[in-house]
Design brief:
Elements lengths: L20 E2 L7 E2 L21 H4 L3 H13 L110 H17 L11 E7 L24 E6 L3 E9 L2 E2 L2 E2 L2 E8 L3 E8 L5 E6 L5 E5 L7 E7 L2 E9 L11 E9 L3 H9 L3 H10 L8 H10 L8 H14 L5 H11 L7 E2 L7 E2 L9 H13 L10 E4 L2 E2 L10 E2 L6 H13 L1 H7 E3 L4 E8 L2 E8 L1 E4 L9 E2 L13 E2 L1 H12 L25 E2 H9 L3 E6 L6 E2 L1 H9 L4 E5 L2 E9 L4 E5 L7 E4 H6 L3 E5 L2
Parallel strand pairs: 3-5, 4-8, 18-25, 27-28
Antiparallel strand pairs: 1-3, 2-26, 5-14, 6-7, 8-13, 9-12, 9-14, 10-11, 10-13, 15-16, 17-23, 19-24, 20-21, 21-22, 27-33, 29-30, 29-33, 30-31, 31-32
């Protein structure tokens, strides 16, 4: 088979295995920090005939030769240039310990371009598309703290007599002034570089260009043709079909070539081209520019005939049919059976495309901005849903030219309103905060514990602010403020040996009200804890709470506040010894992640804390330090909660029988006295004592109802 390029020049040194070229509010029972612990992936024929040529081509020896040819042929296909596309409760007590309202449950105790696969002609990720360049705003930026002394690069000026550096003498230039870089500025830039570098990763790229990818396959009437007597040339059998890659909406495949030419007793009767249908839908195959009578057939992955087009003469052949996702082979066959003339020979243009499905039609009508539209369509070319990486890629596409225009903002909101139901619940909730608004968007803290103004997304928002909003809500980069220590990458797994109350170990934050609710939920409703977390597979987790009766999501990464000795500064996994774990060790992470997420969510103002900031807090009313038992239960479980004083009678009184019923049921029950909250785990009928767990993982209690009364205790419980 002689091969010619598009200019008609003969390829010299021809090898049959190298046959193709690709063209290129206030709440009771608030508790704080106790002082009990220190801070810290054969012939051509009609395809309907019983004499299907596929059978004639199925000789084992010949197929073996074909299999040998294919892996060794370099892909010399030429790829064409694609088009460019762009419940009402008493008010809480203040921090003053002299204010002792025993009817309140709120107290506080102060303490301290893609590569082409050489075999298949497709890209390595299976998508035969060219990658567009990243926007300038998403380029990786590497920053390292600068030593001011390193900034002075001028050579020292030496006195020729004394060897000393001297400024002001004739012939000597003064030393340039050494200046210092504000470490806060470096941190500010570093936080932005962190987010930009994450968003520049390929997994978030939805900006790929699309269009028609063109291949060439020519034969001519001298020399080798389709020599079926001694082995197959590429495209001459279904088993040796040329793979032209994946077909998707806006990613068409085109083959320009010839068929039916012969030389001597050999003739190129068939050309087979295989492709992958990337998504179920209606596929169109057209065969045009014909000068002889040829036919077009389509086979499935098993070699069974799907459908065909067999018009008389030189009319175009067309197939339009619904295909499920999978592998298919198209066949162009010549009717001329004579080896002595070329009456059945012709050039052809084969085009394979997929029609837009409903989602894609809606996107075309709904979204105006070319970048946002392109990112949205690229996200669903192989499936019918928007995953986390898709949504992040679509969001960041709106910042491709330095700022977000009014059209882009409108398009993002139209996209969310239309497609949020196809997203995972946490992705929908978190992206809504980016696209619309959330009180937490006002600030960005990052890793330096310094709050910087940010603000909701609006027309004119810079690309950098858009990226920070995405980082804050969907990448977990906006970490809580800490008073001391630093952030370290935590090691370990989300859960180890199941979920139980013993996993809870309080740290240097007055979050006993929240951790007691976590322990109680783990004790009675462990499935709620398991469902609380979604592992994003990249070191981040979506964490679900409930605020105002609705699911409320936060994204956290695995960077944890760490003391100088490498141990957790705040909550970590309990081990029964009341010791803090080393952050980088193999830990159980769910408790630490939950507390961190709770601190981040607090900035929204929906947790009822007196200070709506993204910080853990140590002193009274800082961040999540010092809070309500009932709020803690409701935020963790999504169930309504009630509180009452432990006594035999009176307003909000909880009798012994009532408390026993609550504890013996599957209610989450927490108890507090002396400014510290705990979890009631069980009741012992034989002793009349309640087993009470301290979130500090030490100094647990076994107390009777009377002993609880003597301590002025009150309880909070989930109503189911």
């Amino acid at each position: 088979m002689l091969e010619f390029n598009l200019d008609g020049d003969l390829f010299t040194g021809f090898d049959a295995s190298n046959a193709y070229q690709r063209v290129a509010g206030g709440d009771p029972s608030a508790y704080g920090l106790s002082q009990q612990k220190n801070l810290q992936p054969g012939s051509a024929s009609d395809p309907l005939s019983a004499q299907d040529p596929i059978s004639a081509l199925a000789d084992d020896d010949q197929n073996q030769q074909a299999a040998t040819l294919k892996p060794h042929r370099p892909a010399l296909w030429n790829q064409g240039t694609p088009s460019q596309h762009h419940s009402s409760q008493p008010a809480g007590v203040a921090a003053d310990p002299s204010q002792t309202d025993q009817g309140s449950d709120r107290q506080q105790d102060n303490s301290d371009p893609a590569q082409i696969d050489q075999l298949t002609g497709g890209h390595q990720d299976g998508r035969a598309i060219a990658s567009a360049q990243q926007p300038a705003s998403a380029e990786r930026l590497e920053l390292a703290p600068a030593d001011p002394a390193d900034l002075n690069t001028a050579p020292p000026q030496l006195d020729q007599l004394t060897g000393e550096t001297e400024a002001g003498f004739f012939g000597f230039m003064p030393m340039p002034t050494i200046f210092e870089i504000d470490p806060d500025v470096l941190s500010y830039l570093g936080e932005r570089a962190e987010v930009n570098n994450l968003l520049a990763e390929d997994r978030f790229d939805r900006d790929q260009s699309t269009g028609t990818e063109t291949f060439y396959n020519f034969t001519w009437g001298s020399g080798f043709s389709a020599n079926e007597a001694s082995g197959y040339d590429v495209t001459d059998s279904i088993g040796n079909a040329a793979d032209i890659g994946t077909v998707a909406y806006r990613d068409d495949k085109q083959v320009i070539g010839t068929v039916g030419y012969g030389s001597g007793c050999n003739r190129d009767y068939n050309d087979f081209f295989s492709f992958h249908a990337g998504k179920s839908g209606t596929y169109d195959l057209s065969l045009s520019n014909l000068g002889a009578n040829v036919g077009l057939a389509l086979y499935d992955d098993s070699g069974s005939l799907v459908t065909w087009s067999n018009k008389w003469g030189t009319q175009d052949e067309n197939i339009s049919t619904f295909l499920n996702e999978g592998h298919y082979t198209s066949r162009i066959y010549s009717y001329n059976s004579s080896a002595w003339n070329n009456n059945g020979a012709t050039g052809f243009n084969l085009n394979i495309s997929r029609q837009a499905d409903l989602f894609e039609q809606v996107t075309n009508c709904l979204i105006d901005d070319s970048s946002v539209k392109n990112a949205t369509l690229n996200s669903i070319k192989y499936d019918y849903n928007f995953d986390r990486n898709d949504v992040i890629g679509i969001l960041k596409s709106a910042g491709d030219y330095g700022s977000v225009t009014n059209t882009e903002l409108t398009d993002l909101r139209q996209f969310w309103n239309t497609f949020n139901g196809t997203m995972r619940a946490d992705i929908a909730g978190l992206s809504k905060k980016v696209v619309f608004s959330d009180d937490s968007n006002a600030w960005y803290t990052g890793y330096d514990s310094i709050r910087n103004e940010l603000g909701n997304l609006e027309a004119g928002s810079s690309t950098q602010n858009l990226n920070l909003l995405i980082g804050k809500q969907m990448l977990g980069t906006d970490r809580p403020m800490i008073h001391t220590g630093s952030y370290t990458q935590a090691g370990g797994s989300l859960f180890v040996d199941g979920i139980n109350a013993g996993d809870v170990d309080q740290g240097a934050t007055g979050s006993c009200y929240f951790l007691s609710a976590l322990a109680g939920t783990a004790n009675e409703k462990a499935e709620l804890i398991e469902d609380m977390f979604t592992d994003n597979g990249d070191g981040t987790y979506s964490v679900r709470f409930y605020t105002n009766g609705q699911a409320d999501y936060v994204t956290v990464d695995s960077m944890m506040a760490t003391k100088a000795d490498g141990t957790y500064l705040h909550a970590d996994a309990g081990d029964g010894t009341a010791t803090d774990a080393v952050v980088a060790d193999n830990n159980e992470l769910w408790v630490a992640l939950a507390e961190k997420a709770y601190a981040q969510l607090n900035e929204s103002g929906r947790l009822g804390q007196q200070e709506a900031t993204n910080r853990y807090g140590i002193a009274s009313n800082e961040g999540i330090s010092w809070g309500s038992l009932t709020n803690g239960i409701e935020h963790v479980t999504g169930l309504s909660a009630t509180w009452g004083n432990v006594n035999a009678s009176g307003i909000n009184g909880v009798s012994s029988a009532e408390l026993q019923a609550l504890v013996n049921g599957d209610n989450v029950v927490t108890v507090g006295w002396s400014g510290h909250a705990r979890t009631i785990m069980s009741y012992d009928d034989s002793t009349g004592e309640y087993t009470i767990r301290n979130p500090y993982d030490e100094n647990h209690s076994s107390l009777t109802h009377a002993e609880l009364i003597s301590r002025g205790a009150f309880v909070s419980w989930s109503n189911t």
